[in-house]
Amino acid sequence: MKVTDTAGFTDPGRKRRRNEDSFLIDPPLFAVADGMGGAQAGEVASRLAAAAFREFHDADDLDPEKRLAAIIQEANRRIYERAAGDAQVSGMGTTITAALVAGDGLVIGHVGDSRAYRLRGGKFEQLTDDHSLVADLVRSGRITPEEADAHPQRSVITRALGTDSEVDVDTFTVHAESDDLFLICSDGLTTMVDDEEIRDLVTRARDLEQAGKGLVKAANKAGGEDNITVVLFRVAGGPSELEDTMVASGNGRGQDEDLEDTLTGLEAPTIAAPAPPAASVAEREWGPALDEEEPVSRPGPASAGDDRRPP
Ligand code: MN
Questions:
Q1: Does residue 168 lie in a domain region?
Q2: What is the distance in A from the centroid of ligand 1 to the CA of 32?
Q3: How many domains are contained in the chain?
């Protein structure tokens, strides 16, 4: 599969002064991160996460799922260490939903409540499971999906990058077919616009750019209560030109010019982040340890006060 078209937009929405979301469009890799934390901490966290993906092309020969998981663990470690060493960003965290087009599939890596969707023909399907309190309640049958949409605690997530030294990452691969369209978005879209309307807007749009702008507009029209980020891309059959270029050039740098061609008319987001020192990556389960002493918000010390408080 190769990526044939991309578009990405981020918008602060109508209620927030800051935009704590970040996104990355660097085919065949895509990501959305929704940061949390006081002051500027959420922005720092989401940008650190997106920046970790910049080194993707230098990654080793792990299989794609392991590679994506390793990048996310690295992002987690950087955010956690930065938060531990800088009181101004203490307690920051972020979601991450990342996708890598590889072979005949799309590899997804996911933590938190940002989402990935696939539109194939008229069928619009959520690929990721939300790591959120209300999603847990729906899965256990205690509330309905409709009740979840209006639940006062719908912003509470049960996993995030940066809140602990290790993080439990969902990784899986979905089959991709020619003309499949994928959407990665933050909850600022999905809490404002239901899936059916998202599908209709994307289906009716003449291209991905119009689709992306339409989604942001719809979220704002519905209230724009949170930052809104959408990343869209379409794939087509055949070998990946980008992967061919990587093989031919012998390293990941050779494809920058090709990426620029692919991204004509678009700009990848500017991501600036310091590179923390290297350390080992560890794995263990990061449980949904909601801190009972924290106000109703994102879990643990990352609770972000105003920015994550339910209405
Ligand atoms: Mn959000």
A1: yes
A2: 11
A3: 1
Range of the domain at 213: 2-297
307 domain-assigned = no
Query: Would 189 be classed as within a structural domain?
Result: yes
Distance (Å) from CA 196 to ligand 1 centroid: 20
* 18-77 tens-digit pLDDT: 999 999 999 999 999 999 987 789 999 999 998 888 776 555 567 899 989 999 999 999
> How many angstroms is it from 103 CA to the middle of ligand 1?
31
Both tokens assigned to 177: 């077919």
The domain that holds 251 is classified in CATH as 3.60.40.10
Please report whether residue 171 resides in a domain. Answer: yes
Alpha-helical segments (H) within the chain: 41-52, 64-85, 133-139, 145-150, 187-190, 195-204, 208-221, 241-249, 256-262
| 39 DSSP 8-state letter | T
149 CA to centre of ligand 1 in angstroms = 14
